[in-house]
Amino acid sequence: QVQLVESGGGLVQAGGSLRLSCVASQRTTTLFAMGWFRQAPGKEREFVAAISWSGANTPYADSLKGRFTISRDYGKNTVYLQMNSLKPEDTAVYYCSAGPVYRNDYLPRMASYDYWGQGTQVTVSS
Questions:
Q1: Is 37 buried (19+), middle (13-18) or exposed (0-12) by CB count in 10 A?
Q2: N or C: which end of the chain has fewer CB within 10 A?
Q3: CA 106 – CA 58 distance, rounded (Å)
């Protein structure tokens, strides 16, 4: 059973930055795609970004391109989400996910991922 633990959330002013981290409990996740999703109060969970098992493909939600960057460190079993120029509408719980996703068009789909973290709260004040 793979466990994912997110960290790095918090309260930040609009225009600020945060870097989220997600550590996986098993090295088998180096063969998995990793993704970030978020859920704002009263809204459905939505795709933020993903990174393929090879690191070669990194799709983003269209509205976030240019502000968020996903990366991974295979040696540390960790995936990161660097968030810059944060806006109040970025306020949400951010979830890390992992799964054996080998089609690039499946990377943004929640159903593609088998494992999920507990989430970390990001609050952006105006």
A1: buried
A2: N
A3: 12
